[in-house]
Design a protein that fits this description.
The chain has helices at residues 3-16, 30-43, 51-68, 117-125, 127-140, 176-195, 215-232, 245-255; strands spanning 71-72, 83-87, 93-94, 97-102, 150-153, 161-166, 200-203, 237-242. It is globular, with a radius of gyration of 19 Å. The protein contains eight helices and eight strands, in the order αααββββααββαβαβα. It has a six-stranded mixed β-sheet, sandwiched between helices. The protein has a two-stranded parallel ribbon with strand order 1-3. With 256 residues, the protein is of the alpha/beta class. The longest helix has 20 residues, at 176-195. The chain starts with a helix and ends with a helix. β7, α7 (215-232) and β8 form a beta-alpha-beta unit.
Length: 256
């Protein structure tokens, strides 16, 4: 199958899983068909899937990520010893682990085609990621607390692992508790990486999107916490991954 045929196959199978989808029309354009595929994946409950579906999905996602352009962090220029700053799509980054800004359910974003990093990571990893997270959370038996970290496979992403952390939600005035919770996110992700022999980790801007943590303060906490950790741990490299120009400007100034 070519990529178009693979996408059609995936959509057909996803639609067949739910009788409520029987009247959904499949768009003609490739872009709209991918949006439909992504939406169906985003809302799909963590449940078993056929091996044939996984094989086709894996090929399709890896081809899609390759087309977007995979970036090996080793090709980047460090801004400090063992510290990198990179602006781009974290799902295309080849490194030891990327950090996912998760929610307390730890099952990924269920909002179709939402712009959060949790949605992107689950979309391009594949449906297996939600299955692994659901199994992990069922074993745990309670929602994930803020400021901790859990590691999973990365499946179809070019990184080796994903480290998931739930950042603090700032619904009103920023407090010292929010700040300490965010520090804990960075510390626990770094500890988890080292404990699992991961030699490079890419951080997104945890909590600064839908969780409303002020970007400037969040970046300072991130840089300071990483700097402190690296003083006593020389076995890991850190990539600060940003997507927005404003965040790049903030991190560039702090790291300079």
């Amino acid at each position: 199958m070519n990529r178009s045929e693979k996408l059609s196959y995936l959509i057909k199978n996803l639609l067949s899983e739910n009788a409520d989808y029987k009247n959904i029309a499949v768009p003609d354009s490739a872009g709209e068909r991918f949006r439909l595929f992504r939406s169906l994946v985003n809302v799909r409950a963590p449940k078993p899937v056929l091996d044939e579906f996984l094989a086709v999905q894996n090929e399709f996602l890896r081809e899609t990520i390759t087309e977007k352009g995979i970036v090996d962090y080793k090709d980047l220029t460090p801004v400090k010893p063992r510290v990198y700053l990179w602006q781009g799509d974290i799902t295309t980054l080849k490194c030891g682990a990327i950090v996912n800004a998760a929610n307390s359910q730890m099952l990924g974003c269920f909002c179709p085609c939402h712009g959060c990093i949790d949605n992107a990571i689950h979309t391009f990893s594949g449906v297996q990621l939600r299955l692994e997270c659901a199994k992990m959370m069922n074993t745990q038996g309670y929602e994930e607390p803020v400021g901790q970290a859990k590691i999973t496979s990365a499946y179809n992403l070019p990184c080796d692992k994903i480290i998931h952390t739930v950042g603090p939600y700032v619904g009103g005035k920023l407090t010292e508790e929010h700040c300490e919770q965010l520090r804990s996110c960075y510390r626990e992700c770094l500890k988890t990486a080292v404990q699992n022999d991961i030699s490079s980790i890419a951080f997104c801007c945890i909590s600064t999107g839908e969780f409303h943590f002020p970007n400037e303060k969040a970046a300072k906490i991130a840089v300071d916490t990483v700097r402190e950790f690296l003083q006593n741990n020389n076995e890991i490299e850190v990539i600060f991954n940003v997507f927005k120009n404003d965040d790049y400007t903030i991190y560039k100034r702090l790291l300079d």
